[in-house]
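Re: your question about 4-hydroxy-3-methylbut-2-en-1-yl diphosphate synthase (flavodoxin)

S., sorry for the slow reply, the queue was backed up all week. Below is exactly what I fed in.
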Amino acid sequence: MIIEPGLNQADTPLKVGTAGRRPTRAVAVQWGGRVVQVGGNAPVVVQSMTNTDTADAIATAIQVKDLAQAGSELVRITVNTPEAAREVPAIREQLDRMNVSVPLVGDFHYNGHKLLADFPECAQALSKYRINPGNMGGGKKRGDNFAQMIEVACRYEKPVRIGVNWGSLDHELMARMMDDNSRRAQPWDAQAVMRDALVVSAISNARRAEELGLPSNAIVLSCKVSHVQDLITVYQDLSARCDYPVHLGLTEAGMGSKGIVASTAALSVLLQQGIGDTIRISLTPEPGGDRRREVIVAQEILQSMGLRAFTPMVVACPGCGRTSSTVFQELADSIQSYLRDQMPVWKNRYPGVETMNVAVMGCVVNGPGESRHADIGISLPGTGEVPSAPVYVDGKRTVTLKGDTIAQEFQAIVEQYVERRYGAGDTNNNKVGG
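Result:
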């Protein structure tokens, strides 16, 4: 069948954008005067986690600060030993001295009930607890340990994330559900039962927490797996069965491009459907790698999907045989790094600058057009083209740069544009796009 091209006869144009956000309860995570709302009508929150030894208070506080300055709105720290629990108040105090108000989330497994009871200062210094019900013992012990942690959360008025993980799923629950499944007329495969068990565990433990006195608006859920399609299915099911806010993350996503691509593939589908209230990109850093990369990737996913704006976006062509010079690649890289480095200062000084679009193009094929569509853009000369680089500001060609100082001159033009457009007294501060 051949479909002839023609005009769209519909009364309205095709809808662009994500589905409406899934309605959830609103959970407040706070420290002092800083309140981060998760769920409700709040934007999707970016989270990260330290990989320092929490017992090293100085190293942990420094990494928390780095992650917070990169844009992590909640930072999770491991609390796994008495030594780590003892240092949590010192970490919080150090952050407060550095004017870093990011709320801290304590990550507990196996012995969290004991650590919270033995170190009340730790329980108070944390802004939220992450509890994995699959790592709290078996039988009656599991129920008692869970109840102890919820009692502490109630005492100090702390919200809780009940985080179920397929690597540590409640074995007793899974066994019961597998037995029930065997009695079905057409039994499900084991993977399907596992997905269902994740959702059942999360919701049943949330309801148990409410029975123990934890307010319904103090609970966040997560069901993490490491396969993209499983994650999508689990969160679609979880979101259809409850109205708790949910934390998204592909657990053990991996290193480098594999981890980034897999996380983006899974989370983007869910975010497009309006599912997800907080996200974390669980990247394995290369040896000596920068932990802040997971924050940047999370921000770029949200910004690329139009859900939030964190830093000016740079549009740059991939290069081809027309662009044998590396000048445009180096300029795109330096401008992108420069814009991100400026954001800690700019976000307060220049409201709205995070929505700015910058184009750095490598030849005349798409260069002038892309530059005109950006707020500010430059079209560098390709192979065999006239050695000049026209600059476009708000869609108009303003100047042509030549010579060996194009990069420095263009950066100066960007700085002047930011000051002029987003500085104090500019009536266009709320303008989005070009």
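The chain has two domains: 26-305, 313-422. Residues 425-434 have pLDDT under 50 and may be disordered.

Happy to talk it through on Thursday.
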